[in-house]
């Protein structure tokens, strides 16, 4: 699938798209609040960018930069005070290296009241790749985060 077509499909499912120029990525922002999360508001940033070939260094660096962007740009109460930050970091590409796949399939890096989900959109094989299991840290939220990523960033 062509990246421009993919981006337009994603943008139909998500609102509030801006260009995060320092990341060379589209950024979408939403807030979610649920009782089952013990009344915590998740401030969710989702990022989408393209790189022809994706290796471990690419996805690891991209995901870390997206998380830093989310931590820098969220507004409101400090993290941990009925607030959490989510960063869904989607890097789309055509040639995906196995070390990149291995990275997104393992548990994300831990941060205080901040959750990241690195995702690879394999446009050549029309599939989304991200962790299958639920990490212990943030288990209450990761079911929702993974479902969100699967629905909003699906390759149709």
Describe the protein in words:
This protein has 156 residues and is of the alpha/beta class. The chain has 4 helices and 8 strands, in the order αββββαββαββα. Strand 1 (17-20) and strand 2 form a beta hairpin. Helix 2 packs across helix 3.
Give a short summary of the structure.
The protein is α/β, with parallel strands linked by helices and 156 residues long. It has helices spanning 3-13, 56-73, 98-105, 139-152, and strands at 17-20, 25-34, 40-50, 53-54, 83-93, 95-96, 114-122, 127-129. The strands form 2 sheets. It has a 6-stranded mixed sheet, with helices on both faces. It has a two-stranded parallel sheet with strand order 4-6.
Count of individual beta strands: 8
Biggest β-sheet description? 6 strands, mixed
Shape: globular
| Beta-strand residue fraction | 25-35%
H-E order: HEEEEHEEHEEH
**Backbone structural class:** alpha/beta
Core attributes:
two-stranded parallel sheet, globular, 156 residues, 33% helix, 6-stranded mixed beta sheet, single chain, alpha/beta
How are the secondary structure elements laid out?
Blueprint: H1 3-13, E1 17-20, E2 25-34, E3 40-50, E4 53-54, H2 56-73, E5 83-93, E6 95-96, H3 98-105, E7 114-122, E8 127-129, H4 139-152
Parallel strand pairs: 3-5, 4-6, 5-7
Antiparallel strand pairs: 1-2, 2-3, 7-8
Helix pairs in contact: 2-3
């Amino acid at each position: 699938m062509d990246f421009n077509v993919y981006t337009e499909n994603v943008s139909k499912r998500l609102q509030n798209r801006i260009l995060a120029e320092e990341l060379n990525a589209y950024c979408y922002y939403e807030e979610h609040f649920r009782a089952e999360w013990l009344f915590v508001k998740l401030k969710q940033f989702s990022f989408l960018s393209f790189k022809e070939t994706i290796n471990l260094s690419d996805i690891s660096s991209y995901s870390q930069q997206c998380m830093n962007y989310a931590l820098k740009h969220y507004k409101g109460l400090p993290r941990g005070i009925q607030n959490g930050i989510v960063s869904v970091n989607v890097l789309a590409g055509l040639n995906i290296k196995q070390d990149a796949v291995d990275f997104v399939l393992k548990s994300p890096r831990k941060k205080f009241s901040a959750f990241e989900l690195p995702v690879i959109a394999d446009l050549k094989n029309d599939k989304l790749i991200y962790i299958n299991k639920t990490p212990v840290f943030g288990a209450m939220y990761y079911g929702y985060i993974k479902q969100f990523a699967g629905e909003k960033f699906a390759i149709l």
